[in-house]
Amino acid sequence: MKKRTIIFLIILIAAGVFAYLSWQNMSFSKEVLRIEILAPEKTNVGEEIEYIVKFKNNGNIRLENPELIFEYPESSVISNGGQIKTMSSSELGGDIYPGEERVFKFSAVLLGKERDVRIAKASISFQPKDLKTRSEVSTTFTTILGETPINISIEAPSKVGTGKALSLRVDYSSNVDYPLTDLTCYVTYPSGFDFLYSQPRGIDNTQFDIALLGGASSGRIDISGILNGEASEQKVFKAKIGIWQNGNFILLKEVIKGVEISSPSIYLTQRVNNNSDYAASPGEKLHYEIIFQNIGDQELKDLALITRVDNRYVDMESIEAEGATIEDGSIIWEAKDISELSSLEIGQIGKVEFWVNALEEIKVDGLENKNPTIKNTVTIGETRQDFLTRIESDIGIAQKFYTDNKYFENSGPYPLQTGEKTYLTIEWSATSTLNDVDNAKIVTALPESITFENKTYAQEGSEIIYNEETSEVICNIGSIPAGSGTVKEPKVCAFQVSIQPELADEVIILLGAAQLSGTDQWTGKTLTAKTDILYAQMSF
């Protein structure tokens, strides 16, 4: 009996010691070491924030082998390292003695949209002296995001008639001094919106990547389409802009714009040079006809029709508009000038017209300016509509020959000599001013006296083919990017020929006129250009 009592007492004492040590360990984790995070409670998106992590040993026992883990908030940009920063005992300065306080700092840039909540967490584990178990204390800190470094807006008419063309403009800008990279703008369209085209072009017509937005700079996306719906129905367009980080899209700002389907009383159409979908050429004289019809249920009186042409690509001084007043770039027809504006019966059609010259020189000074359009905004009564006329590119081709070894090793006399063989290199260079040109190729036929030497040079994506039966040389260029020859290098191909004159002519035709052709990606039109004949000189 006594033996059992002793065993019971030993078990009881062991349990008490274990309970005491457990309680002691808990008291360490909750009371002995105090940890806190100090940081701003609010910060603007994109600004660097500093987290100060402080911890202090408030007990009388040394805390050994400490380890600190700091977790940055989600969507943080850290200059070095990942989202979680772990600091070993040596990095923390070793054991923490009673009364000792230590401070560590962590910096990051927080991303997200306005009023998002970002939470940082710090935890420290340690082993109290003479104890085998480790304890851990942790804390968090919440920061609310304020203003974002991006502004974004949607400009569109508040009302539009069903089946009418709608122009949508998304403007975005930076309000910080440092550049922003890897941005993307997504545009979401309502049901009933038929996308036509955009400037610049997007991925799937909805995703517009922005490689770089410089400090305090801006950009624009112009979108055109046809909006269909029931009268008084609200259609909502959405645009959001964000930044990519580690393959994840972080939303910075979003905006919506509502457009009401109105019950129109006037139907508007426009023709340019007698075509409803005309593609203009630089320097061309454009004849605009604006046709309006009363499709309402009552007579319309005392109307005014105002049209304003975007002056970026036309010569405003060249405007001719009979019976109209021209003020500050607007062309105005009043009821006293046009009888149909004075009184427009149900179903009646009226028309006004004007002429304006497209600018002779329209240049692309950056990829954001390619695929230009002439915008014409027409207002009559409560009806307002935008019309867009696309501008076709101007392509060009030049051919020249080299006697030196620019592409290949050439030899023989030049000027040419009778009975002597000379090797020359022909170079073609193709250009496009405003738009990308697809399926581009250059074709010419070699004169009988010229021999193709099967030495060719073509840039990536291009090839040169020689047809022995027709003596044709064909350079399949592929694509000519907008701005080639101005802001970019032209597309080039070259080949070697030889000639051995038999007669002492003063000049010899080395190559006939070469023709460049291709499809304007923006307008869909087939474009062509030709070179002059290429001559070589003889020596006498």
Summarize the structure.
The protein has 540 residues and is mostly beta strands. The chain has three helices and 41 strands.
Write the layout of secondary structure elements.
Blueprint: H1 2-32, E1 33-38, E2 42-43, E3 48-57, E4 63-71, E5 76-77, E6 84-87, H2 89-92, E7 101-110, E8 117-128, E9 135-145, E10 150-155, E11 159-161, E12 164-174, E13 180-188, E14 193-199, E15 207-213, E16 218-227, E17 234-245, E18 248-262, E19 266-272, E20 279-280, E21 285-294, E22 300-301, E23 305-309, E24 314-320, E25 325-327, E26 330-333, H3 339-342, E27 343-344, E28 349-358, E29 373-380, E30 383-391, E31 395-402, E32 422-432, E33 437-445, E34 450-458, E35 463-467, E36 472-480, E37 491-499, E38 507-511, E39 515-520, E40 526-530, E41 534-537
Q: Tell me the distance between the termini.
A: 139 Å
**How would you describe the shape?**
flat
The total strand number stands at: 41
Classify the secondary structure makeup into a structural class: mainly beta
Instruction: Provide mean pLDDT, rounded.
Output: 88
Number of domains: 4
Beta-strand residue fraction: over 45%
Percent helix among the residues? Answer: under 10%
Radius of gyration: 38 Å
Largest beta sheet: strand ordering: 20-30-29-23-26-25
Gross CATH architecture of the largest domain:
Sandwich
Q: What is the CATH third-level topology name of the largest domain?
A: Immunoglobulin-like
> What would you call the quaternary organization?
single chain
Largest sheet: 6 strands, mixed
Number of helices: 3
Low-confidence stretches: 23-29
CATH class of the largest domain: Mainly Beta
